[in-house]
């Protein structure tokens, strides 16, 4: 009997011991996190997960996503001018004063004198002949006439198709501060998003920081930059090195950034002409893009003419269109130079560069 009582007591003690010594169970769903960064266990010795280099490369936005987002931004800055025109056209009586106001509105939007007069004359004729009063009809009339000025028939495609054994070469020129380096960086992203192998050439050797800036843009998307460590190095030689490196590494496109900081027009002509000639010893230059700041108005037009004399421009990049209601500059520049606007910059963000599309541009202004 005593033996049985002793055995039962031992059993009770053992069970109690087991219960008391067991670790507390986590509540369902776990505890709220209380760890700090130092508690994160290291993966394989000394490399933490976040240190893996692949995760630092950015994936640029696709052209489709970019266009939809930037269309809104263009409308925000330029809609005022389009809406103003529609209000004037909808007046009960459109007299000469109203036509003068319409012309002023167009001039204020930097459309240029010739294009403004032409648009007013065409609108006058059509409003008189058709006797249009209906707002929807007036809008479609304005849309048609503006579209004719922006000219949807121009070839705005970027020549970035490589030839056998040779990359396509794009030379980017313009005065300092207009957004050249930023544009080269953004364009590299557009091309990377299209699965192209890109090489950058930092031929803006006036400022070491310009090459650093370009290199940073490239590194974000895994694109190499050819540069000189020497400030004031010969830009033509850096451009040549970039193109030959592009050939050796079988790149699809080489983008060459240049300096715009020259004391005089003759110096600029000599330098740009030389950069182009020296590149052509290695490969053909497919595009010469002139970058113009849309906020500079007539000044931008004067600059454009100087550059066009120095080198054959094949396309215009109009930057900072997000910060101005002067979208009419597109028409003035195309007419002045006879060269299409191919790309537009609509912000400082890395994916704020879009191909120019005449229909979308006019719709953003008047819709
Ligand atoms: N809002 C806005 N800012 C822009 C745009 N493009 C460039 N910028 C800004 O313009 C400034 C000048 O740009 P850069 O690319 O350094 O100009 P750059 O022509 O290379 O100048 P230099 O190297 O001095 O010759 C920067 O602050 C850019 O962020 C744009 O489309 N919109």
UniProtKB/TrEMBL annotation:
GO terms for molecular function: GTP binding; GTPase activity; signal recognition particle binding. It comes from the Bacteria. SUPFAM superfamilies: Domain of the SRP/SRP receptor G-proteins, P-loop containing nucleoside triphosphate hydrolases. GO terms for cellular component: cytoplasm; plasma membrane. Transmembrane segments: none annotated. Residues 340-353 form the SRP54-type proteins GTP-binding domain. Its main location: membrane. InterPro entries: AAA+_ATPase (IPR003593), P-loop_NTPase (IPR027417), Signal_recog_particl_SRP54_hlx (IPR013822), SR_rcpt_FtsY (IPR004390), SRP/SRP_N (IPR036225), SRP54_GTPase_dom (IPR000897), SRP54_N_sf (IPR042101). Pfam families: SRP54 (PF00448), SRP54_N (PF02881). GO terms for biological process: SRP-dependent cotranslational protein targeting to membrane. Gene3D superfamilies: P-loop containing nucleotide triphosphate hydrolases, Signal recognition particle SRP54, nucleotide-binding domain. Keywords: Cell membrane, Cytoplasm, GTP-binding, Hydrolase, Membrane, Nucleotide-binding, Receptor. It is found in: Cell membrane; Cytoplasm. It is a peripheral membrane protein. GTP binds at residues 174-181, 257-261, 319-322. Involved in targeting and insertion of nascent membrane proteins into the cytoplasmic membrane. Acts as a receptor for the complex formed by the signal recognition particle (SRP) and the ribosome-nascent chain (RNC). Part of the signal recognition particle protein translocation system, which is composed of SRP and FtsY. Belongs to the GTP-binding SRP family. FtsY subfamily. PANTHER family: SIGNAL RECOGNITION PARTICLE RECEPTOR SUBUNIT ALPHA. This is Signal recognition particle receptor FtsY.
């Amino acid at each position: 009997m005593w033996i049985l009582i002793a055995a039962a007591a031992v059993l009770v003690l053992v069970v109690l011991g087991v219960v008391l010594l067991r670790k507390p169970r986590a509540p369902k769903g776990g505890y709220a996190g209380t760890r700090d960064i130092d508690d994160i266990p290291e993966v394989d010795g000394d490399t933490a997960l976040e240190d893996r280099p692949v995760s630092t490369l950015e994936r640029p936005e696709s052209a489709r996503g970019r266009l939809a987002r930037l269309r809104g931004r263009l409308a925000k800055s330029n809609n005022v001018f389009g809406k103003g025109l529609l209000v004037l056209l909808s007046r009960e009586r459109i007299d000469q004063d109203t036509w003068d106001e319409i012309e002023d509105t167009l001039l204020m939007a930097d459309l240029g004198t010739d294009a403004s007069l032409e648009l007013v004359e065409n609108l006058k004729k059509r409003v008189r002949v058709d006797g249009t009063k209906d707002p929807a009809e007036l809008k479609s009339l304005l849309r048609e006439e503006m579209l004719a000025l922006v000219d949807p028939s121009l070839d705005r495609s970027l020549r970035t198709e490589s030839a056998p054994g040779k990359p396509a070469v794009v030379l980017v020129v313009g005065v300092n501060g207009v957004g050249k380096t930023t544009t080269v960086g953004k364009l590299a992203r557009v091309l990377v998003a299209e699965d192209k192998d890109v090489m950058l050439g930092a031929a803006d050797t006036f400022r070491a920081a310009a090459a650093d800036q370009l290199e940073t843009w490239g590194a974000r998307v895994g694109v190499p930059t050819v540069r000189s460590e020497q400030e004031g190095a010969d830009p033509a030689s850096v451009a040549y090195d970039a193109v030959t490196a592009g050939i050796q590494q079988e790149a699809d496109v080489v983008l060459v950034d240049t300096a715009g900081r020259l004391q005089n027009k003759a110096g600029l002509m000599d330098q740009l002409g030389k950069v182009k000639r020296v590149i052509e010893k290695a490969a053909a230059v497919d595009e010469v893009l002139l970058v113009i700041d849309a906020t500079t108005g007539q000044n931008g037009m004067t600059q454009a003419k100087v550059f066009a004399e120095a080198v054959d421009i094949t396309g215009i990049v109009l930057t900072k269109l997000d910060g101005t209601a002067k979208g009419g500059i597109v028409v003035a520049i195309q007419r002045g130079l006879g060269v299409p606007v191919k790309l537009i910059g609509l912000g400082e963000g890395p994916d704020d560069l879009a191909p120019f599309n005449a229909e979308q541009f006019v719709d953003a202004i008047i819709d």
